[in-house]
Amino acid sequence: MTEDRDALAAQLDKEHVFHSWSAQAALAPLVVAGGLGTRVWDHSGRTYLDFSSQLVNVNIGHQHPRVVAAIQEQAATLATIGPATANLTRGEAAKRIAARAPAGMDKVFFTNGGADANENAIRMARLHTGRDKVVSTYRSYHGNTGAAIVSTGDWRRLPNEYARGHVHVFGPYLYRSEFWATTPEEECERALQHLRRVVECEGPQSVAAILLETVPGTAGIMVPPPGYLAGVRALADEHGIVLILDEVMAGFGRTGEWFALDAHDVVPDLIVFAKGVNSGYVPVGGVVLSNAIAATFDDRVFPGGLTYSGHPLAAASIVASIDAMAEEGIVDNARKIGTDVLGPGLAELAEKHPVIGEARGVGVFWALELVADRATRAPVAPAVMGRAKAELVSRGVIPFIADNRIHVVPPCVVTADEVAEALAAYDAVLTLLDEEL
Ligand code: PLP
């Protein structure tokens, strides 16, 4: 009977669900029926450690009882209300988000997710400055809508009619340095020089915004070297450019901080958030505005908004999620696990397995970059990554695979025992991959 439900889920998915980012024919996605904390399971009771946090969004873990209860309670009270109303729960949610942002960033604009939050941040920057261009990095992901996808470096090869005014630069990435750097200091200095030259060549008076992921996630989890973001801030200040930090993936605990920017001595003008703010229990995202940019719109209309902006179910889930994360020390747990258990464990794997070119990250935000040859750093073939995924799933671990990397990104509530269990599976699979070299 339960086996039948797994089969039925697979059949209905095959017949009626058109999946994102995929060729449809060969798809056979994992059936997931339930979850709790770091684990999910199918109808037959096969359980998996979710070391993907789905799309790196379930920071608080699956089915946190307090967040589930808050959504249920809100649904029973007021299941929907338009954005042009004052609602206590929405106000409480905005207050909690602003409280985690740097001082002087008091207002929150709500959207339905991360991509539309970036769209609106870019629009705010353009209206605030009266300029057009947006500088972002080649290795980045900002979402799959108009301006967000063209600011996304990795996807700029797609044809897109919205490409007006988007300029790309190389960000710091020491392992594959574009600047022939051999130390983090060199990489930082040269990446800043390169950015400065591009801004100068584009004409600083035409640049509305520099848009960066605080820690680029999907493109490879490259923690910026100390001083890089502060250097970008200084350059932006010199030319009146708006600095937008995209914290959609890095924010709300993932790096062991409320916002990843907290570890980088930088105050942006706009912070873009989504994912971890409520772990995706209800779709939501948004922009935290500096008071200066918010004031731009005191006497003029901000032409942006969506029917479901600031939806009460999303707001209730944000309030409960932030409160639970604070009271249960979930952000601290992410930091400690990263420093004491996950980081050292992955470093050990990197020592042992020639297929790992580099293990890098922070908190519960790590990447294992797999290479066919450590000397040349040539990435492994896509088929190797396909095998890695299948072997990990067969050992009960859901991985997040991107290009030639395994991203090790469990929920922030992960325990040391769960990390040990997953590391044993990675170890076994990496041994198989070593043999293919
Ligand atoms: N920005 C970053 C840094 C992301 O990682 C993502 C999604 O992975 C987005 C924006 C887009 O968010 P969404 O998929 O909610 O539109």
UniProtKB/TrEMBL annotation:
Q: Which EC class heads this enzyme's classification?
A: transferase
SUPFAM superfamilies given in the database record: PLP-dependent transferases
Biological classification of the source: Bacteria, Bacillati, Actinomycetota, Actinomycetes, Propionibacteriales
What domain of life is recorded for the organism? Bacteria
The parts of the chain that form a coiled coil are none
* Name the UniProt record assigns to this protein: Aspartate aminotransferase family protein
**Sorted UniProt keywords:** Aminotransferase, Pyridoxal phosphate, Transferase
GO terms under cellular component: cytosol
- What family does the database annotate? Belongs to the class-III pyridoxal-phosphate-dependent aminotransferase family.
> What GO MF annotations does this protein's record show?
pyridoxal phosphate binding; taurine-2-oxoglutarate transaminase activity
Q: PROSITE patterns per the record?
A: AA_TRANSFER_CLASS_3
Q: Which Pfam families match?
A: Aminotran_3
EC? 2.6.1.55
